[in-house]
Each structure stands twice: as structure tokens, then as C-alpha cells.
Amino acid sequence: MSHTAEHSHDASHAEVHVHRDDFGSKLGMWLFLFTEVILFGGLFLLYFSYRVKYSHDFHEGAMELDLVKGTMNTAILLTSSLTMALSILFLTKGNKKWSLIHLAVTILCGFGFLINKYFEYGHKIELGIYPSKTSGELMNMPEGQQVFFGLYWAMTGLHSFHVIVGMILLSYFGVQIIKQTKVTQENYARLENGGLYWHLVDLIWIFLFPLFYLLH
Amino acid sequence: MSHGNEHAEEHHSVGLGTYSIVWFALLALTAITVAVAGINLGDYTLFIAMLVASIKAMIVINVFMHVKFDNVVVKWFLAVCGIIFAIMFIFLAFDVLLRY
Amino acid sequence: MSTNSIGTVNYLNVDKSIWSWIYTTDHKRIALMYLAAMMMFFLVGAGLGFIMRLELMTPGKTVIDAQTYNSFFTLHGVIMIFLFIIPGIPAVFGNFFLPIQIGAEDVSFPRLNLLSFYLYVIGACLALYSIFFGKTIIDTGWTFYVPYSLTTGSDVMLPLIAAFVLGFSSILTGLNFVTTIHRMRAPGMDFFKMPLFCWGLYATAWIQVIATPIIGITIVLVLLERTVGIGVFDPAKGGDPVLFQHMFWIYSHPAVYIMILPAMGLVSDIIATFARRQIFGYSVMAITSMSIALIGYFVYAHHMFTSGMDDTAKIIFSFFTFLVGIPTGVKIFNWVATMYKGSIDLKTPMLFVLAFIFIFSIGGLTGLVLGALQTDIHLHDTYFVVAHFHYVMFGGTVFIFFAGLHYWFPKMFGKMYNEKVSKVVVALMFVGFNTLYFPMFLMGYMGMPRRYYESLPEYTTYHQVSAVGSWILILGILLMVGNFLVALNGKRMAKQNEWDSMTLEWTNAATPPVTLNFDKIPTVTAGPYNYPDYSDSEGNPSLEILGEKH
After folding, report:
1. ipTM score here?
2. Which CATH superfamily groups domain C18-507?
3. Is A16 among the domain residues?
4. Of C20, C109, C216, the CB nearest to A28
């Protein structure tokens, strides 16, 4: 893609010709993704450590998790990655309508994921398996299971938070596609970078899923 | 370094067909990993689960996230991140595996 | 190139409204705002240190009580580390000079740069708020180890949230610098034609991006444990406090390389300028910066030798700790080799660098003493450690921060300070610093523990000597600040290229720079330290060059 010179004004009111650097933006986005990888990576480090220590309790804890919902969520996120990639593809071909449709499906998949999590979390809370300093059943369970579920809530909770952030981000870009302001056929780096973020959310779940749901 | 045409990578090289096949492969791998989980492989369970997850991840990274078609700098960046995370893991494991 | 632009429009006076500063995306203005904030926080942190030294001068209470003392050493660490030394050289000199040194107009993401600064200010405000309005000020030590940080009644939330926000600021700066160095170099400026300061910033930026999130997640987990009771570190819930230490140091050890690598890069720039030589082993210096950044991930648990870790793990970490000393030693040898038979001009920045080489060598060597397992058993958590890290962080990074101030002051402000006074500053700081910290090596060796409010009578004299050293040091710091303030308000103009240096900020940018760094982006053909060598191929002084006026 050629570089378009945009005029930007800094505080000195001098005109600075800023060449749009799409590849630079992509590199910057990848660096940000690395920070997310390491953020979750820290939790994965803890998971591995405690799994070595409490392999039996982790197994027991995993039995409480709903494999069907977990698998459904995996399929949902994988599909959302497809629609995300297609959304970008259609935009580069100038097909605004199909780009927006696929973007909307991506966001809907996010909703589907969150709805599943809502039911899963709700079920856990009914059983008393939630982190608390004063109430619930978790504090009466074996130590290894307390760690297991502490990690479960922390990791899937943090992941769900990132799903929400991704949905907001993609909605924002969707609006910009509609208004043809900052995301267009010629200027789609933002959508690409948003897509990278969304794929990362999918990637994290690709690893979370077997670690929590496939322990039997 | 001049701003060369890094978008020489073609979105057109990855079309609807490729994306769909890849998506289907990912779903298939998911099905496999769920099925395998039912088989008791002892210590290897975790290893195989992680192996399949890694394959899925590589597919998402290379195709959906376009790294296969990107400038080599992106691949180097990924390598740096991956290697350093691996170091963190390995060095932590020295204590964890030997102590627990 | 243009002469001193102080009388004309430059980046400082082009718009003097406060909003033009608050909303600026000019990397030079952002750098100055960081500088102003950081100097304030440094003085606060130094004040805390001053009072701590006073307290330890006599047995029993001297000026503050024990609980306050615990809060003081905690805050001293938090402020000095998170508010001063980690943003440190990259936030001030990196922001100001990285783009200029590589021949660019600004960083890759100027607005993100401003966001980094805003996050820094927000984080600082959160940290300081907890000092003035918290019920009990945090008393966990800056390392906030569990289980105490989980159970203490002191206000841990706000400082930890502050640290998280500051970490974000650091990450975004690192992200910006990596991208800038890859994308914004001028035509002809290959990676191996960049000044070594830029290489230092590059290695640092990678650490900022990759290591910082680990402390981020650790902070989040401690906060979750304190609020909702998620128990991944709480032993009562099956958690392992040693795992907390692992997570903490996986960031905090590479963090010390965030602190020192930019400083080492700046040392190379300064020596090249004041010895008028190409740096000996330029490529190796670049590669050792990157190696130190990498090997830093292999050594982190040398902070944990007495924690109950497995013995084999300890041996591995000790081995790599010794290994990381090798690229560090190579740098010292190369600096000395550069100076050998150079044409040395003992201006203030160079004096700071010489002080640095002496002090940092002591700091580094004592690091090896701590890195050896058998000696560490005795020295862990003693004053020996306190002395070691002050030697490398203060006598290392901060002395070079001061060197950078003296080196780049004329360029940044177009004015010049009093050189005689600045040399007195170096002398005061050198004497004060060693008087303050050297006795700590002896105390620690004899067994005085760190973070103790009370000490046995046999240590009192050492504490008193230290306190006197702190007064001399603080006098030097205040004299330095005064010298700069007088210069800023004074009439002594700086030359366009005060030191006749060869890097782009001196040769191609105005003094002080205008908002647009360059009239025309330069095309680079030579390396960064393009000084004629003062010796021929056999190492003899070259007769044609001697006597040539620069």
C-alpha cells in the first residue's frame, strides 16, 4: 500500500507532514499483543507450577467444569476468527456490506461466548465455588482445588474481560467503516490491528480450553 | 530503512477458500483434542493437549493473523517473544519440577 | 548548520501556553515534562533517604518511629524505582534524543508517547496520594512479598495500582521506541550506524515490552487476593509464597537492566565525544547490550537463594549470574580501551563517566559476591545488598543520568551552566556517595540486616559515617540543581555544538532544537563516532592529527 501524506498539527501549529506508516502500526500492535501474551503467560506459569504440585486436585477440579460449554466456546471463538479475517478480506476488496456483516457476526460470537460463560459462572456460584474471603464452599475444599478454581476464575475472568474489550473495539471500527471516516478500503490498518487483537483473544482460549476442560 | 512496500504480502493470496479450509481444520483439531482427552495417557495427556493447542495456534498466527505472508521482521519479533517466554518457563521449571 | 537558536523560534518558545505543553506531541517537550516531574520525585525520594540515615545515627528513636521507618523505606524504594529510575534515562533523554540521533522528526507514535506521560503522572499521583491520605502508609518494602502484603493492614491497594499504571506507561514507551528504531531511521542510518545510546535504548525497550507484564499480572493477583480472596499465593489456600517471588523477580531482575542499559549506551556516547575516538569495539558494544538484555532472564532467581528453592535450580541461576558479568566486563574494558591514547577532555560529563566506571565496577563485582551461593547465604538481606544495588543503580545509572544532564543541557536549553561549579558537584557527589554507601558493605559483611529500624551498637559508627556521606551527597545534588536553575535564568549561551561531538543531535539539529528537528532529513553515510583516530594502525600517535584544531 502506498503511503499517504497526512497533515497533522502539533502544538506549534507548524504543519508536519506525517507519512502514514501502516507497517509501523502493525509492528506496534504486535508488540502490544506480546504484552498481553506475557500477561496471560504469567498466569500460565502459575498454572503449570500448581498443576505439578496438585495434579490430583486439578483433575478433581476439572471434573466440575462443563466440557460441552467449553467445547462450544472454542468452536465459537474459532468461527469468530474466521469471520474476523473475512471481514478484513471483504473490506480490502471494497465490499463494505459484507465486511460489516462478518464484523457483526464476529461480535455476536463474542456475545455467544459470554453468554456461555455467564451460565458457567452462575452454576459455579450456585455450588459455592467462587473466590471469597467470607462465604462460599471453596474455602472448605482441598487446597489444590482452591488453587485450581482461583486460577480458573482469574484466567477465564481476565480472558472474558479481553473478549469484552475486543467487542467494544470492533464495534468502534464498525462504526468507522459505516461512516467511512478512518477505516476504508485504502486505510484498513486499524481494522487489521483490531483483528489481530481479536485473534489473540482466540489464541488465549485455544490454550485455556485444554488446560481447564480437558483434564480427564 | 526506507518505507518499502511491506504490503507486498497479498491479502489476495489468502482468499475465502483458504480461510474456510483452515477454519475447518481448526474445528477438526478441536474435535480430536476433545476425543483424545477421554483416553487416559497419564503424564502425556498434558503434553499432547499442549501440542495440539500449539498446532492450532500456529495456524491461527500464520493464516488468520497473516504472519506467514508478512515481512520477516514480524516473524523475528514473534520469535523474540516466544523465546523469552520459553526461557521464563524453563527457568521457573527448574525450581518447580525439582521441588514439587 | 544554524547557530544557537535561543534568540529565534525553537521548541521551547514556539508556544508558551500551558495547554500547548499539556497537549503536546512533540517528543522534546514530553521529555522535559518527564524531567521536571522526575526531578521532583527524586528529591522526595532522596529526602526520605536522608531521614532514614538520620534515624539510624543513634540507637532507639532518633527522628521517626519504627512503623514510620518501615513506610519510609518502602516509599523510598517505590518512588526511586518506579517514579525515577525505571522511566529514568529513556523517558527523558530517550524521548528527547532518540529521534534526533536516528535522524527522525519524532517517534513512531507521538500521541501514544503523550499517553505514556499521562499514565506516568496518574501513577505518580496515585502513589503519592496514598502517602498523604492513606490510613497507614504501605510498609511491605518495595518488593511487597507475600504473605505479608496479603495480610498487612497498611494501604497496599493504591501503591500497587499506581505501580500497575506506571508499568503500562513503561510498556508503551518501550513499544514506541522499538517501532521508532525499526521504522524511523534516516536514509543510510543502518542499525550498526546508530549511536550506542540508541542501541542501549533498543535493548531496554524490548525488556520494557516483554518483562513488565509479568509484574502487571502479579500485582493484579495480589490485589485480587486482598479484595476477593482468590488464593494463588496464600499458603492457607494452597498457594506458594515462593512462586510469588519467582513472578516478582522475573520482571524485577530484567528491570535492573532497563535501568542500566540506557546509561551504558550514554557512557559510550560521552566517552566517544570526550576522548575524540570511535568507541573501541563498536559492534561488540551493541551486541553486548542485547546480550545483557537476554541473559537477564536467565538469572532472576539469584534474588531468591535463601527462599527455599531447589538446590539444582540455585546452581543454575548462580552460573548464569556469573555469565551475565561477561558482557558487562567487556563493556568496561572497551570503554577503557577507547580512552587509552585518546585525546581526553575532562569536562563534567566525562568526570561523571570516570566516577561511574570506578563505582559501577565495585557495584558489579560485589554483585558477583552476592551471586555466589555460599557467600549469599551470609549476605542476603544485609546491608551488603543495599550497598551493592546503590552502587550500581545510583553510582551507575543515576550518575550517568546526571552526566546526561550536564552533557545535553546546552543542547536542550541553549544555555550553559558554570563548569567550575559542576566539577565541584562531581567531587561532592563522588565523595558523598562513597562515604554514604561504602560503610554499608562493611556493615553487611559483619551482619547488619537491611530494613531494620534498630541496629546493634557495633554498627552505630558506620551508620553515622553513612549519614555524613548522605549530607555531602545531598549538598552536591542541591548544588547541581542550583547550578542548572541559575544557568536557565542566566545569560551564558551555549555554543551550537558545545562539545564538538559528532552524533546527529549535535551536528544537524539546532541548539535548542526547533520543533521540526531537521531542516532536511540527513542522509547518513558514516558511523556515529566519526572522529579521526588519534593513533595510527600501530597505536602510535599520528603526527598529522596531533596539533589539528577542532
Report:
1. 0.93
2. Cytochrome c oxidase-like, subunit I domain (1.20.210.10)
3. no
4. C109
Give residue-wise pLDDT tens across range A71-81.
999 999 999 99
Residue A110 is assigned to a structural domain of this protein:
yes
Interface test with A, best of B9, B11, B18 (most A CBs within 10 A): B11
Region label for C546, one of left (φ > 0), alpha (ψ between -120 and 50) or beta (otherwise): beta
Taking a C-beta distance cutoff of 8 angstroms, is the pair B67, B78 a contact? yes
- Which of C358, C163, C119 is closest to C255 using CA atoms? C163
The answer to whether residues C308 and C242 touch, using CB atoms and an 8 Å cutoff, is yes
- Mutate one of A9, A27, A38, A130 to test the C interface: name it (highest C CB count within 10 A): A38
Q: What is the CATH number of the domain that holds A192?
A: 1.20.120.80
**Residue A89 touches partner B, C-beta closer than 8 Å:** yes
Nearest to A37 among B73, B85, B93 (CB): B85
Give the B:C interface size as CB pairs under 8 Å. Answer: 46
User: Of C459, C456, C437, C296, which is closest to residue C358 (Cα–Cα)?
Assistant: C437
Give, as one character, the DSSP assignment of residue C185. Answer: P
Q: Which residues of C touch A55 (CB under 8 A)?
A: none
Q: Domain range spanning residue A164?
A: 22-214
From B91's Cα to the closest Cα of chain C, the distance in A is 7
d(Cα C354, Cα C336) in Å, to the nearest integer? 10
User: pTM for the whole thing?
Assistant: 0.94
Task: Please answer yes or no on whether A49 and C228 come within 8 Å at the CB atom.
Answer: no
CA–CA distance, A146 with C335 (Å, rounded to integer): 54
Measured in degrees and rounded to the nearest 5, phi and psi for residue C343 equal -100, 90
C330-349 pLDDT per residue, tens: 999 999 999 998 899 999 99
